[in-house]
Amino acid sequence: MPTAEARIPTDRPGRYLVQLCKHVANKGRHLTHRPRTHALPELRPDQIQVEWTDSDGTLRLPWGQCTLQAAPGTLRVYVEADDQENLERLQDLVSTHIARFSRRDPLRVTWEPSDATADAPAKTAPPRQRHSGRTRFVVIGVAVVAVALHLALGGTVLAHTPWTGWVVGFLVTVLAVKAALVGGLALHRHGRRT
């Protein structure tokens, strides 16, 4: 059984591991709803099994298996398949997606043949870990602080300004526009991460 391994130096190995696993899991779930544009042709959602935590991941496809491990400063990727053609398909899948995910600070994936018995990552599938909702609480906390600061600033201005009606209308409008922009940006960024 042919195997290959890549050790990708990066400051954010866990981020790329989770992003790749989520992407493959989503493609599997939505293959029947989207046009097939890249890397996962001729697959049905039931043929894709993806499991991950922040430090380990496993992609099981009909072509073979990809095991990922995030260590400090390195994302380790181990692929195995029944034949060389399928091994190359897995390597291409990982390489193209890592390159796309890291386009701001490009990562290079260099594959080396691997001895299947020597130093292979654990084959047991890690349990899938869901986000705790921490991001949502951070966004809400920032919004609450922003509203409190604006209200305090508005109160100060109102106490020292003869044009109270106009100032109140202006401050309410500014506050509403800022809240909409910050909330929309936060939801957009959160949507890109998941």
How does the SSE layout of this entry go?
Blueprint (H helix, E strand, L loop, with lengths): L2 E7 L3 H18 L18 E4 L3 E6 L2 E8 L2 E8 L2 H18 L10 E2 L20 H26 L4 H30 L1
Antiparallel strand pairs: 1-5, 1-6, 2-3, 3-4, 4-5
Helix pairs in contact: 3-4
For the CA atoms, what is the radius of gyration?
24 Å
Number of domains: 2
User: Beta fraction of the residues?
Assistant: 15-25%
Structural class: alpha+beta
CATH superfamily of the largest domain: Alpha-D-phosphohexomutase, C-terminal domain
Summed up, what is this model?
With 194 residues, the protein is α+β, with helices and mostly antiparallel strands. It contains 4 helices and 6 strands. The protein folds into 2 domains: 3-113, 2-Layer Sandwich (TATA-Binding Protein), CATH 3.30.310; 134-193.
Task: Walk me through the structure.
- With 194 residues, the chain is of the alpha+beta class.
- The protein has two domains: 3-113, Alpha-D-phosphohexomutase, C-terminal domain (TATA-Binding Protein); 134-193.
- It is built from four helices and six strands, in the order E-H-E-E-E-E-H-E-H-H.
- The protein has a six-stranded antiparallel beta sheet with strand order 2-3-4-5-1-6, covered by helices on one side.
- The longest helix is centred in the last third of the chain and has 30 residues, at 164-193.
- 20% of the residues are buried.
- The model is unreliable at 30-37 and 117-132 (pLDDT under 50).
